[in-house]
Amino acid sequence: MPKKRSGGGLSPTQQAAKFLGVSVLAGAVLAGIALPAFGALGLAAKGSVESFDELPVNLKTPPLSQRTTILDSEGGQIATVYSRDRTVVDLKNISPYMQKAIVAIEDSRFYEHGAVDLKGVLRALNKNVQSSGVAQGASTLTQQLVKNVAVEEAGDDPTKVAQATQQTIGRKIKELKYAIQLEEELSKKKILENYLNITFFGEQAYGVEAASQRYFSTHAKNLTLPQAALLAGIVQSPSRYDPVNDEAEATKRRNTVLARMAEVGDISEGEAAAAQKAPLELQVKKPKNGCITAVQGASFFCKYVERVFLSDPVFGKTKEQRVKLWNQGGLTIRTTLEPQAQKSVQSSLKDHVYKSDKVAAAATLVEPGTGKILGMGQSKPYGYGKNETEYNYSVGSSMGGSNFGFPTGSTFKPFVAAAALEEGRPPNQEYSSPYQMPYPSPVQTCGGKPWVNTRGEKLENESESEKGPFQLRKAMELSVNTYFVQMISDIGLCPVVKMTDALHVVQGNGDKLPEVPAIALGSKGISPLTMATAYAAFASRGMYCTPIAIESITQKVGDRTKSLEVPKSTCSRAMSEKTADTVNTLLSGVVDSGTGRQAGLSGRDNAGKTGTTDSRKNAWFVGYTPKLSGAVWVGSATQKVEMTNIWIGGHFHDQVYGGDTPGPIWRDAMTGALEGKESGDFNLVSIPNPPGKDRDKGNGDGNANGGNNRDDGGNGDDGGFLSGLLTNGGNGNGGNSTAGSDAGAFFQGQTNGNANGGRRH
User: Fold this and answer.
1) 360 — phi, psi (to 5°)?
2) Number of other CB atoms surrounding residue 269 within 10 Å
3) CA neighbours within 13 Å on the CB side: how many for 286?
4) Distance CA 676, CA 362 (A)
């Protein structure tokens, strides 16, 4: 049975029929008394009832858009985002003063009439005739609610908003019928509750709870009489009566509301007079919307969460569906971000790289075995001003990062080693590893057509003193270029492609890596998140888990809360446990006695690899413990800055290496993130020397060229260095590939024309 309206008398339908039978009143109401009086009187009633009856009965009320709250893994707030700053509250949580004030000033006979107030129509019509214009309106709160619903449904589409608010008879007829429906289906209290939650109060505040917070920093249930009167007065014209911009006009309007409340008997004359003398006493809270407001430098992670939501089909089959759900809001998103890890990441970045430096740094921490992103940050803050950026250097282009990621240098070499081990090569595999050599040719590919060095391109190690033979352990510690290119020649390119596919290693733009021997030297751009997640598979003994950022989502819709499905990490075996354990043993040597000594952690099993690319444009350290994996990149986003004779974080560097700049960032970030937590142990393996070999030739004290061990850089498109590269005091100067800009154009439209290497650290 439909609910009876409050106040008795004719039912809404009967009252509307009676009303519509009077042509003059029909024209007046259907025009909303929003047209000049004489124009309204000239409206014909013919066809009005027929058009009225043909309208659909049901008003489709969209869920009210609300703010979304993004939380860290422990429930702390990271940020709030919204298209409408609104928090829906029950009527019992709205001050009685507020309820009375809005009724008094907007629709004083609200509890006495149905969908249409006939007395109000006559009063408004008479007033407008006398003024020969529009002096007064006659829309009830219910009719206003219907109009607000239409505006809410229109969202941010200006065309739809205009249609929802246009002053036409057709819209007024529709508004009237829907108002009748609401009066039949809802109680007066529920209509009032819906109205107070949907209406706009200015200053980006939708609904009375958001308005209470915006203007007075309090909850709607705690509004005092003067405060409630001020908010009620704003509704008629949020811009005109905005107390932030025009306190005098807002005060005048508030006092009008108080006088009206006294006139209708809601308060006494004395209460009204006292409230009218009260100062506004605003305590304005500035709107805090969007990831730019995130705490602990988590703005980039916050945007990553938003990108995941808008791109993952679990939240809607189409982009439009996902955008609609995101804008609807009312979501509470608990993420994987761990406060301790995030704080450590930001602290380390701040200590080692200044936001005003010519280069930037990005760091990402991932949990092995789960794929959870525990920390993500960078040295340049999120924003649009000087020394700020909206680009997330930790991720690929589809998630808001660079077009192609950043060349990884020698941090790619462990993938080659893992592929060779999976193919059955022994952990003490030895190659001649000369100082300089042509790229081996031909090299088998997955497609069957071998790669051929048609241009006779050559590559070389860092210095002439680095010449083999070398075994795998020492080649990894010293990052010997020729060793790993010989390894690819031995096993072919397909095993390497198979390994990188299993580890989901792709270029920053999502493309697969090319089948060329130069990939051994990290010539292609890859994101720090991709590298951290791939290395996490070594830490978890060969199990790769896709990265995830969201733990759970709940959504408030009306009076109920529901849980939404969220993306899950998918784990799969990328390599055998034996292979992973062997790589862990090899990379433990890098931080113990190789190029990563400055990054090594004390008191924990840890492993990692350094990387530096041609002309010092990129420097990396990617490493892990059994419990945490992390990648750190340092360089110029535009790839225009060569990190030689440069100040970074207040320290001068004649040349930047993977071990001396990103390495310490990784070390400090990991140390803080793991403080107070179990260390975990690797399952290290024994790697014996080949029969008749005591040690690798040319190892010496492990320091090539006066102790400056440097990482191999990335080589060009189909090869690496051309012949005739010069050495300068034992330091190999990287040459330019004939392919030119192999690494591709980087975001912001820049091109790396030196996508080759010869640097290692």
Assistant:
1) -125, 170
2) 10
3) 3
4) 24
**Which two three-digit tokens encode residue 518?**
């130069």
Question: Which residue, 637, 618, 394, is CA-closest to 527?
Answer: 394
DSSP one-letter code for 401 = S
Closest CA to 151 of 163, 161, 143: 161
What's the pLDDT tens digit per position in 473-497? 999 999 999 999 999 999 999 999 9
| Model confidence pTM above 0.85 | no
Task: Dump pLDDT digits (tens) for 617-650.
Answer: 999 999 999 999 999 999 999 899 999 999 999 9
Whether 373 contacts 547, CB under 8 Å = yes
> Is the pLDDT assigned to residue 135 strictly greater than 80?
no
Q: Which SS3 state, helix, strand or coil, does residue 461 take?
A: coil
Per-residue burial over 5-15, b = 16 or more CB atoms within 10 Å of its CB, e = otherwise: beeeeeebbeb
Distance CA 29, CA 19 (A): 9
**Residue written as token pair 């002439």:** 464
Concatenated DSSP letters for 581-593?
A: HHHHHHHHHHHHH
Q: Find out whether 625 and 539 touch, Cβ atoms under 8 Å.
A: yes
* Nearby residues of 132 by Cβ (< 8 Å), 6 or more positions away: 36, 37, 38
Q: What is the pLDDT of residues 572-590, one digit of tens each?
A: 999 999 999 999 999 999 9
Q: Is 246 exposed, middle or buried (0-12, 13-18, 19+ CB in 10 A)?
A: middle
Euclidean distance between CA atoms 742 and 578, whole angstroms: 35
Q: Is the peptide bond before 442 cis (omega within 30 degrees of 0)?
A: yes
Q: Is the dihedral of CA 261, 265, 269, 270 positive or negative?
A: negative
